[in-house]
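[Automated response] Your request has been received and processed.

Submitted sequence:
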Amino acid sequence: MRRIVGIDFGRKRVGVALADPLRMFALVHGTFDQAGALAELRAIDDNDGIETVVVGWPLTLEGTEGVAVKSVETYVRRIQRVLPHVDLVRWDERYSSEEARELLVRAGVPRSQRREKGRLDAAAAAVILQQYLDWKRATHP
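Generated structure:
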């Protein structure tokens, strides 16, 4: 079964998460620079195949598209050029970083490690992907 991948885009770092083979859990995969994340997506696709990429979509608190959407949309086009056969889902990422931070606290990750921005980006990608997986299971049993 091909993979489902979650992306938390940032100007400096891109968090990447992968769904487990049963598509029940999102697993942190890593943090990369933008070009490195594209190369990693290509490698995942070459090894396992990718069915869907779920990209965190930075809506405002009111639920509208703000200025940050332009940067993410540019990156989405880059993903589509690298993986034209893959479904791409834009997923509301509001509060994903806060939820990721809370999950790291509950997991007992020391404060010094929680402050590492890359760790938070990868955890946020896992939160985005987990929300999508939960929604998919609830709406497409």
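Summary generated for your ticket: The longest strand covers residues 50-57. The two ends are 17 Å apart (CA to CA).
If you did not submit this request, please reply to this message.
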